[in-house]
Design a protein that fits this description.
By secondary structure, the chain is an alpha/beta fold. The chain folds into 2 domains: 6-54; 61-351, Aldolase class I (TIM Barrel, Alpha-Beta Barrel), CATH 3.20.20.70. It is 45% helix and 13% strand. Strands 1, 2, 3, 4, 5, 6, 7, 8, 9 and 10 form a 10-stranded parallel sheet that branches. Helix 10 (263-276) links the parallel strand 7 and strand 8 (281-284). The longest helix has 18 residues, at 131-148. The two termini are 36 Å apart. It binds iron/sulfur cluster (SF4). Residues 77, 79, 81, 84, 86-87, 125, 127, 157 line the site of iron/sulfur cluster.
Length: 352
């Protein structure tokens, strides 16, 4: 950890920039360096953000990718994830319904398209999909892609290798399945499935040839070490797209009322995820409005992606506020091929 004080601002700035420079030339953050980011002094934050922005700019320029969530089946889940309003142990007042019909899924895709999203995320509340849910996804994905040209990310819970193959075959580009927290902390947030179950699903998705979307939730009582371990696990799995959620402690869930975060810590988390996963898409996900608050725009110096619109069972800020923030920052929404992937391929070709 860098101990900065008003008298050594230059040291703080140069140390963070030196770390960013090393990341840009292939350095993998160590556990100690990662902890140093999370525990850095608040008065170092402008320097940390500036250094992190160099890495973001290198791989993603000034682009922002938008994702749109469709809660295709809400509530009724037999799992007991403590943070989730849709779990069997939640009394949260949320809509509960089975899989939406074709028209509603198409309506959602139209909204995603109109809002400039690159990716339409079809999410169901479930331990894993049943046969009729997989069949519905297989029917809908080609139609949505043909009509709206959207990338499809499916979030259907735990998957078998065979189910993953079927998703790949029908045109799903990536699958979301969050690790949520570290392996060590996992038992405190869920007892009905294990961290390893989640890792196995991610491996099945990878083996089927799809991209991984996997991230976590910050603020569930974990230690800084847990945040670092989760972040590094995502790095080890080479996850392409990492949603970073900040716990929205929904009334009726076991974590209701939990409030461990402040906006500056949330920014440090985003910097950690960018510096540890320089070429991955980092998305500021659920809870950004209530935890980053007025500092939301600064998060974009580390992250390059946002959900636009509402979350699964909670409200997001109006899309117009997101567009204004993106424009005010001098960033532009892109639906193009991910800059990082192209740059990574160019770098590999140059060193071959
Ligand atoms: S498996 Fe998913 S939908 Fe079910 S309780 Fe856990 S997070 Fe919620």
């Amino acid at each position: 950890m860098i101990q900065a004080s008003p008298s050594n601002d230059t040291t703080s700035a140069s140390a963070w920039h030196e770390l960013a420079e090393r990341v840009l030339t292939g350095h993998k953050l160590t556990h100690e360096e990662a902890l140093g980011i999370l525990r850095s002094n608040d008065d170092e934050l402008p320097d940390l953000l500036a250094a992190t922005h160099r890495v973001r700019r290198r791989y993603f320029g000034n682009t922002v990718q938008l994702y749109f969530l469709m809660n295709a089946k809400s509530g009724l889940c037999p799992e007991d994830c403590n943070y989730c309003s849709q779990s069997k142990i939640s009394d949260a007042e949320i809509p509960r319904y089975n899989l939406l019909n074709r028209e509603k899924l198409l309506d959602g895709a139209r909204v995603a398209y109109e809002r400039g999203s690159k990716t339409y995320c079809i999410v169901i509340s479930a331990r894993g999909p049943n046969e009729s849910e997989i069949n519905a996804v297989e029917r809908m994905v080609p139609e949505i892609k043909e009509k709206f040209g959207l990338n499809i990310c499916a979030c259907l819970g735990l998957l078998t290798p065979e189910q993953a193959q079927r998703l790949k075959a029908c045109g799903v580009a990536k699958v979301n399945h969050n690790l949520n927290t570290s392996e060590e902390h996992y038992g405190t947030i869920c007892s009905t499935h294990s961290y390893q179950d989640r890792v196995d699903t991610l491996k099945a998705v990878r083996e089927a040839g799809m991209e991984l979307c996997s991230g976590g939730i910050i603020g569930m009582g974990e230690a800084d070490d847990d945040v670092v371990r989760m972040c590094f696990s995502l790095r080890d799995l080479a996850v392409e797209s990492i949603p970073v959620n900040f716990l929205n402690p929904i009334d009726g869930t076991p974590l209701a009322g939990k409030q461990d975060l402040n906006p500056r810590y949330c920014l440090k988390v985003l910097c950690l995820f960018r510096l540890a996963n320089p070429t991955s898409e980092i998305r500021i996900a659920g809870g950004r409005e209530i935890h980053l608050r007025s500092l939301q725009p600064l998060g974009m110096y580390a992250a390059n992606s946002l959900f636009v619109g509402d979350y699964l069972t909670t409200k997001g800020q109006p899309p117009e506020a997101d567009y204004r923030m993106i424009e005010d920052m001098g960033f532009t929404v892109t639906k193009g091929e991910e800059t990082a992937i192209r740059l990574r391929a160019m770098e590999q070709a140059a060193t071959a």
